[in-house]
Amino acid sequence: MQQYWNRWENWMQQHAPRLLNILHPGVTPEAMEALEKLIGTAMPASFKAFYALHNGQQKARAGLVDADQLLSVEDITVQWHHWKDLLDAGTFTWHEEPILATPDTGIKNDWWNPLWIPFTGDGFGNHLCIDLDPAPEGRRGQVITLWHDDSHRAIVAGSFEEWLQDYISAVERGDYIFVKRWGIVHKDTFLNYND
User: Fold this and answer.
1) Does 19 fall in a domain?
2) What are the residue boundaries of the Knr4/Smi1-like domain, all occurrences included (predicted)?
3) Residue 107 falls within a domain, yes or no?
Protein backbone atom coordinates (compact mmCIF):
# COMPACT_ATOMS: atom_id res chain seq x y z
CA MET A 1 0.00 0.00 0.00
CA GLN A 2 3.01 2.28 0.41
CA GLN A 3 3.26 2.62 -3.37
CA TYR A 4 -0.26 4.07 -3.57
CA TRP A 5 0.39 6.64 -0.87
CA ASN A 6 3.74 7.51 -2.49
CA ARG A 7 2.03 8.15 -5.81
CA TRP A 8 -0.83 10.14 -4.28
CA GLU A 9 1.46 12.23 -2.08
CA ASN A 10 3.77 12.87 -5.03
CA TRP A 11 0.79 14.22 -7.01
CA MET A 12 -0.24 16.38 -4.05
CA GLN A 13 3.29 17.70 -3.70
CA GLN A 14 3.25 18.81 -7.34
CA HIS A 15 -0.33 20.12 -7.58
CA ALA A 16 -1.64 20.88 -4.08
CA PRO A 17 1.04 20.67 -1.39
CA ARG A 18 -1.26 22.00 1.30
CA LEU A 19 -3.27 18.78 1.09
CA LEU A 20 -0.31 16.95 2.61
CA ASN A 21 -0.99 18.86 5.83
CA ILE A 22 -4.48 17.38 6.24
CA LEU A 23 -3.36 13.74 6.18
CA HIS A 24 -3.58 11.97 9.52
CA PRO A 25 -0.76 9.71 10.67
CA GLY A 26 -1.47 5.99 10.42
CA VAL A 27 -4.29 4.42 12.38
CA THR A 28 -3.37 2.58 15.56
CA PRO A 29 -3.90 -1.20 15.62
CA GLU A 30 -6.23 -0.67 18.59
CA ALA A 31 -8.48 1.70 16.61
CA MET A 32 -8.66 -0.71 13.68
CA GLU A 33 -9.45 -3.59 16.03
CA ALA A 34 -12.21 -1.50 17.63
CA LEU A 35 -13.79 -0.91 14.21
CA GLU A 36 -13.66 -4.62 13.39
CA LYS A 37 -15.19 -5.49 16.77
CA LEU A 38 -17.96 -2.95 16.18
CA ILE A 39 -18.93 -4.34 12.78
CA GLY A 40 -18.29 -7.96 13.79
CA THR A 41 -15.93 -8.90 10.99
CA ALA A 42 -12.47 -8.17 9.59
CA MET A 43 -11.82 -5.30 7.22
CA PRO A 44 -9.96 -6.19 4.00
CA ALA A 45 -6.19 -6.52 4.39
CA SER A 46 -5.58 -3.85 1.72
CA PHE A 47 -7.75 -1.34 3.62
CA LYS A 48 -5.91 -2.04 6.88
CA ALA A 49 -2.51 -1.72 5.23
CA PHE A 50 -3.49 1.55 3.52
CA TYR A 51 -4.87 3.06 6.72
CA ALA A 52 -1.81 1.95 8.69
CA LEU A 53 0.08 4.64 6.73
CA HIS A 54 -2.51 7.45 6.86
CA ASN A 55 -5.74 7.30 8.84
CA GLY A 56 -7.70 9.28 6.27
CA GLN A 57 -7.77 13.05 6.39
CA GLN A 58 -8.58 15.80 8.84
CA LYS A 59 -12.01 17.35 8.53
CA ALA A 60 -11.35 20.14 6.08
CA ARG A 61 -13.11 22.00 3.33
CA ALA A 62 -10.91 20.24 0.77
CA GLY A 63 -11.72 16.61 0.07
CA LEU A 64 -9.24 14.07 -1.26
CA VAL A 65 -11.74 11.89 -3.16
CA ASP A 66 -13.65 13.85 -5.81
CA ALA A 67 -14.38 16.62 -3.25
CA ASP A 68 -15.36 14.07 -0.57
CA GLN A 69 -13.45 13.45 2.66
CA LEU A 70 -11.32 10.33 2.99
CA LEU A 71 -12.76 9.37 6.37
CA SER A 72 -10.58 8.48 9.33
CA VAL A 73 -11.44 5.27 11.18
CA GLU A 74 -12.96 7.44 13.90
CA ASP A 75 -15.18 9.21 11.33
CA ILE A 76 -16.05 5.85 9.74
CA THR A 77 -17.27 4.75 13.17
CA VAL A 78 -19.36 7.91 13.59
CA GLN A 79 -20.97 7.45 10.16
CA TRP A 80 -21.58 3.75 10.78
CA HIS A 81 -23.35 4.57 14.07
CA HIS A 82 -25.44 7.23 12.31
CA TRP A 83 -26.69 4.73 9.73
CA LYS A 84 -27.15 1.98 12.35
CA ASP A 85 -29.24 4.30 14.52
CA LEU A 86 -31.48 5.06 11.52
CA LEU A 87 -31.80 1.35 10.78
CA ASP A 88 -32.63 0.49 14.39
CA ALA A 89 -35.22 3.30 14.52
CA GLY A 90 -37.08 1.77 11.57
CA THR A 91 -36.25 4.64 9.23
CA PHE A 92 -35.77 2.24 6.31
CA THR A 93 -39.23 0.68 6.63
CA TRP A 94 -42.67 1.78 5.46
CA HIS A 95 -45.79 0.20 6.98
CA GLU A 96 -43.53 -2.43 8.54
CA GLU A 97 -42.09 -3.41 5.15
CA PRO A 98 -38.43 -2.73 4.31
CA ILE A 99 -37.68 0.08 1.88
CA LEU A 100 -35.62 -1.55 -0.84
CA ALA A 101 -32.79 -0.13 -2.90
CA THR A 102 -32.33 -0.72 -6.64
CA PRO A 103 -28.79 -2.09 -6.72
CA ASP A 104 -26.46 -3.30 -9.40
CA THR A 105 -26.28 -7.09 -9.66
CA GLY A 106 -24.01 -8.27 -6.86
CA ILE A 107 -25.31 -5.84 -4.19
CA LYS A 108 -28.09 -6.70 -1.75
CA ASN A 109 -31.24 -4.60 -2.11
CA ASP A 110 -31.08 -3.20 1.45
CA TRP A 111 -31.42 0.56 1.80
CA TRP A 112 -28.42 0.27 4.13
CA ASN A 113 -26.61 -2.78 5.44
CA PRO A 114 -24.48 -2.77 8.64
CA LEU A 115 -21.69 -4.41 6.63
CA TRP A 116 -21.51 -1.52 4.16
CA ILE A 117 -18.61 0.39 5.68
CA PRO A 118 -18.38 4.04 4.55
CA PHE A 119 -14.86 5.29 3.86
CA THR A 120 -15.62 8.55 2.05
CA GLY A 121 -18.22 11.17 2.87
CA ASP A 122 -19.55 14.41 1.45
CA GLY A 123 -21.10 15.64 4.70
CA PHE A 124 -24.64 15.09 3.38
CA GLY A 125 -25.03 11.35 3.91
CA ASN A 126 -23.45 10.10 0.67
CA HIS A 127 -20.57 7.65 0.70
CA LEU A 128 -18.40 5.13 -1.00
CA CYS A 129 -18.60 1.95 1.07
CA ILE A 130 -16.73 -1.32 1.34
CA ASP A 131 -19.40 -4.01 0.96
CA LEU A 132 -18.63 -6.89 3.33
CA ASP A 133 -22.01 -8.57 2.74
CA PRO A 134 -22.54 -8.77 -1.03
CA ALA A 135 -25.29 -10.56 -2.91
CA PRO A 136 -24.28 -14.00 -4.27
CA GLU A 137 -23.13 -12.51 -7.60
CA GLY A 138 -20.94 -9.91 -5.87
CA ARG A 139 -17.53 -9.98 -4.20
CA ARG A 140 -16.86 -9.44 -0.52
CA GLY A 141 -14.92 -6.18 -0.22
CA GLN A 142 -16.33 -4.59 -3.40
CA VAL A 143 -16.68 -0.80 -3.35
CA ILE A 144 -20.22 0.50 -3.77
CA THR A 145 -22.07 3.83 -3.75
CA LEU A 146 -24.50 4.79 -1.01
CA TRP A 147 -26.64 7.90 -1.56
CA HIS A 148 -28.97 8.85 1.28
CA ASP A 149 -31.80 10.01 -1.01
CA ASP A 150 -31.34 7.79 -4.07
CA SER A 151 -32.23 4.09 -4.20
CA HIS A 152 -29.55 3.12 -6.72
CA ARG A 153 -26.49 1.29 -5.38
CA ALA A 154 -23.66 0.88 -7.88
CA ILE A 155 -20.51 -1.23 -7.86
CA VAL A 156 -17.55 1.11 -8.37
CA ALA A 157 -14.75 -1.47 -8.07
CA GLY A 158 -14.29 -5.14 -7.23
CA SER A 159 -12.13 -4.39 -4.19
CA PHE A 160 -10.68 -1.54 -2.16
CA GLU A 161 -7.28 -1.97 -3.81
CA GLU A 162 -8.86 -1.99 -7.27
CA TRP A 163 -10.72 1.23 -6.44
CA LEU A 164 -7.52 2.79 -5.10
CA GLN A 165 -5.52 1.81 -8.18
CA ASP A 166 -8.20 3.17 -10.51
CA TYR A 167 -8.62 6.44 -8.59
CA ILE A 168 -4.93 7.25 -8.19
CA SER A 169 -4.26 6.35 -11.84
CA ALA A 170 -7.07 8.71 -12.87
CA VAL A 171 -5.62 11.49 -10.69
CA GLU A 172 -2.16 10.99 -12.23
CA ARG A 173 -3.66 10.89 -15.73
CA GLY A 174 -5.16 14.35 -15.24
CA ASP A 175 -8.80 13.27 -14.95
CA TYR A 176 -8.83 15.04 -11.57
CA ILE A 177 -7.54 18.46 -10.65
CA PHE A 178 -7.13 20.52 -7.49
CA VAL A 179 -9.69 23.28 -6.87
CA LYS A 180 -8.91 25.32 -3.76
CA ARG A 181 -12.45 25.41 -2.44
CA TRP A 182 -13.25 21.71 -2.87
CA GLY A 183 -9.98 19.76 -3.04
CA ILE A 184 -9.40 17.06 -5.64
CA VAL A 185 -12.31 17.06 -8.11
CA HIS A 186 -13.01 15.57 -11.52
CA LYS A 187 -11.95 17.99 -14.24
CA ASP A 188 -15.43 17.87 -15.80
CA THR A 189 -17.42 18.51 -12.62
CA PHE A 190 -19.43 21.67 -11.99
CA LEU A 191 -17.12 22.18 -8.98
CA ASN A 192 -14.27 22.86 -11.39
CA TYR A 193 -14.20 26.62 -11.53
CA ASN A 194 -11.75 29.25 -10.42
CA ASP A 195 -12.45 30.74 -7.01
Assistant:
1) yes
2) 26-166
3) yes
Residue 113, classed as helix, strand or coil, is coil
User: What angle separates helix 73-88 from helix 29-39, to the nearest 10 degrees?
Assistant: 20
d(CA 69, CA 78): 14
Domain that holds residue 95: 2-186
153 exposure class (CB count in 10 Å sphere: 0-12, 13-18, 19+): buried
Number of folded domains that form the chain: 1
Specify if 195 maps to a domain.
no
| pLDDT category of residue 193 using cuts at 50, 70 and 90 | low
Residue 195 scores a pLDDT above 70: no
For position 192, what pLDDT does the model report?
A: 55
The packing angle between helices 2-15 and 160-173, to 10°, is 30
Query: Considering the domain boundaries, does residue 192 fall inside one?
Result: no
Report whether pLDDT(137) > 70.
yes
Instruction: Classify residue 25 as exposed, middle or buried by CB count within 10 Å of its CB (0-12, 13-18, 19+).
Output: exposed
Backbone phi, then psi, for 184, in 5-degree steps?
Answer: -85, 120
Question: What CATH number is attached to the domain comprising 76?
Answer: 3.40.1580.10
